Amino acid sequence: MGSYEVSPEHAVASSIRMIQDGRVEAVKLEGGIELAPTISRITSIGIPVLGHIGLTPQRSHSLGGFRVQGKTAASASKLLTDALALQDAGCFSLVLEAVPAPVSELITEKLKIPTIGIGAGNGCSGQVLVQIDMLGNFPKGRFMPKFVKQYANVFEESKKAMKQYREDVRSRAYPAKEHTYPISPEELQEFEEILKQRSAEFEDK
Known about the structure:
GO terms for molecular function: 3-methyl-2-oxobutanoate hydroxymethyltransferase activity; magnesium ion binding; methyltransferase activity. This protein is α/β, with parallel strands linked by helices. The protein has two domains: 8-128, TIM Barrel; 132-205, no CATH class. 43% of the residues lie in helices and 10% in strands. The protein has helices spanning 8-20, 36-44, 73-88, 101-110, 131-134, 154-171, 185-197, 199-204; strands spanning 27-30, 49-54, 93-97, 115-118, 126-127. It has a five-stranded parallel sheet with strand order 1-2-3-4-5. The radius of gyration is 28 Å and the shape is elongated.
């Protein structure tokens, strides 16, 4: 938020920095037709842009929170207008977030570029999910959007592993011999002799 909204020139400068310092290959901007001039400016200098319409998390406060977009004919029509404008501005693909599945499918059919859905049904060209959501890498009580399918429970498995680690450390079962580096018996014996010779030093301390 704030890296591209001020002006097209500001967005271009931010995009160049992302390419140079972040070593990315493309940038993503959230917003509709109002961002078309900015996206056109960025793509005109050879930086690929991924668009993002529907629920735009950076603008969620102006949308009344994390709410589904395109639930009426008028708002669905607005999404199509946005999608076509971003396609014309040079976006190589669009993210459609929290949009009714039939609306996403119809918009996808009208576009020449692929769509990536998140909470937008299986009629999009592809899908994306947040990794910590799909892997269950969070504690109980965290809000989960309706569209998330949890494929694992990494958080609980991690807790089990950390508890076992704690128990192994306390009982000295870990680190075991196979987790340590060896020293030859001869070198160890020589080191022990050095310790005996220096025992007076330790007693003084």
